[in-house]
Write a structure and sequence with these properties.
The protein is α/β, with parallel strands linked by helices. It contains 13 helices and 16 strands. About 30% of the residues lie in helices and about 25% in strands. It starts with a strand and ends with a helix. The relative contact order is 0.15. It binds nicotinamide-adenine-dinucleotide.
């Protein structure tokens, strides 16, 4: 049975893009109410997108029995409480990135959702760019070959005016820096294509703005599938670009440089031989192009609710979050390090990565008994090693490509937890 889902939208910033996405799916969704604290913006959004009514009281949304879905587009520090409240009120939940501030919260929410028949979906709308979907299709067909190297650049500009919004730039309210808030989509693409990360080494710094969180980072990554990746993120690039380059044994895939649409076409696929070029062209000619962005993610969410299947993006599941020792592993020669014994999903790893550096002041705790070393100055060196537990990385339901989302490998550089712990 297909019926329209009724959405209560919270927020009036990026929520406007969500409104547009629902409007493109008018046969699947309607938005009777939008809630925001900033009345002017809220009322303007209601008028512009044909939303039924405006409210400033979020509690009224949870109390309504004519809403199927609560869509949370508020600052990061409110995501967990609002999601919990919405699930407890019997609603399906869609929540903007960054989902939460810790794996513990991801686990807690997974437990809450597991006890219900409600759907919970974090937003990763960039996955549905046509160019990225074509790459997924070529991998699925075996046309890419073995993965060698991926480079991901998120070089954007955010000046002081951007950080005048009170919740931005602070650990307590933004929950992380540019890695969590800005590069998250491009980095998610790495995991969406290649699956989980096995090891990450990162340098972070805050040279661009006077903020608590990092605004510039480099990361060296070993993927669980054996390929390598080099990622860079800065909010200090006067020319804004996003660029992803995937090198496989039989093909290179290059994104466009447009900073906010890097998943879209035209993506360039470069084959090693003319024969292989012809095979790629033939495969792409048959590729079914869908809507992209929010429009597509919402469409897939609707399908999941109707069929009882998994939403296209899930927060993953984390059976345990066990750290070695007290979790705040320190390497005198390299600065502090944190080990993550397992994590819920690739995106959760990105969600966690910013928590591994910087001041502990005001930052959400990853685990009650954990402490984080306070670092000196802006130049932060930190190291994250993530161990994947077999089956922890959930294949997302709409992802039919069979790409490597499951792994069970322990980072080869560390034989065991005990060995890792002994290095402290
Ligand atoms: N997926 C993307 O591409 C993308 C892009 C931009 C922002 N975001 C994310 O969306 C979220 C919101 O960002 P934004 O730029 O729209 O922020 P914003 O500050 O522009 O807007 C936040 C909105 O939430 C409302 N709000 C906050 N707390 C509320 C509460 N308790 N009850 C009701 N309304 C409340 C505010 O009134 C405001 O309308 C952030 O997590 C951000 O990272 C995602």
């Amino acid at each position: 049975m297909t019926r329209k889902l009724r959405v209560g939208l919270i927020g009036a910033g990026i929520a406007q893009r969500h409104s547009a996405g629902y409007n493109w799916n008018k046969d699947l969704f309607e938005v009777p109410v939008l809630c925001s604290l900033d009345e002017d913006r809220g009322r303007r959004a209601v008028a512009e997108y044909g939303v039924g009514e405006y409210t400033s009281d979020v509690e009224t949304l949870f109390a309504r029995d004519d809403l199927d879905v609560i869509d949370i587009c508020t600052p990061p520090d409110s995501h967990f409480a609002l999601s919990k409240r919405a699930i407890e009120a019997g609603k399906h939940v869609i929540c903007e990135k960054p989902l939460f501030g810790s794996i513990a919260d991801v686990d807690a929410m997974s437990d809450i959702v597991a006890g219900t028949d409600r759907k919970f979906m974090p937003i990763f709308q960039y996955r549905y760019g046509t160019g990225l979907q074509k790459l997924k299709r070529l991998i699925e067909l075996g046309s890419a070959g073995r993965p060698f190297l991926t480079t991901v650049e998120t070089h954007w500009w955010r000046g002081p005016a951007y950080y005048e919004v009170p919740w931005r730039g602070k650990w307590a309210s933004e929950l992380g820096g540019g890695l969590l808030g800005h590069a998250i989509h491009a980095h998610d693409m790495l995991n969406y294509v290649h699956g989980a990360c096995a090891e990450i080494f990162a340098h972070g710094a805050t040279p661009v703005n006077k903020i608590e969180v990092e605004d510039t980072m480099t990361l060296s990554v070993k993927m669980a599938n054996g390929s390598l990746a080099a990622l860079s993120m800065t909010l200090g690039s006067r020319k804004e670009i996003s660029r992803l380059r995937f090198c496989f044994s039989d093909m290179v895939a290059e994104s466009i440089l447009e900073p906010y649409t890097m998943g879209r076409d035209p993506r360039t696929f470069i084959a090693g031989t003319p024969e292989h070029r012809a095979r790629i062209d033939a495969a792409l000619a048959e590729h079914r192009v869908t809507e992209d962005g929010y429009t597509r993610q919402f469409e897939l969410f609707h399908e999941a609710v109707m069929t009882g299947g998994e939403p296209p993006v899930t927060p993953g599941r984390c059976a345990q979050f066990a750290c070695f020792g007290d979790g705040s592993v320190s390497f005198p020669e390299n600065g502090p390090a944190v080990t993550i014994a397992n994590h819920a999903s690739a995106s959760a790893l990105w969600l966690l990565a910013p928590l591994t550096g910087g001041s502990t002041a005001g930052r959400p705790k990853m685990q009650k008994d954990r402490t984080y070393p306070r670092l000196q100055g802006n130049q932060r060196l930190y190291r994250v090693v993530a161990r994947q537990i077999a089956g922890m990385i959930e294949q997302n339901a709409a992802d039919k490509s069979g790409a490597c989302h499951r792994s069970g490998s322990w980072p080869k550089s560390f034989r065991s937890a005990a060995q890792w712990s002994a290095r402290r």
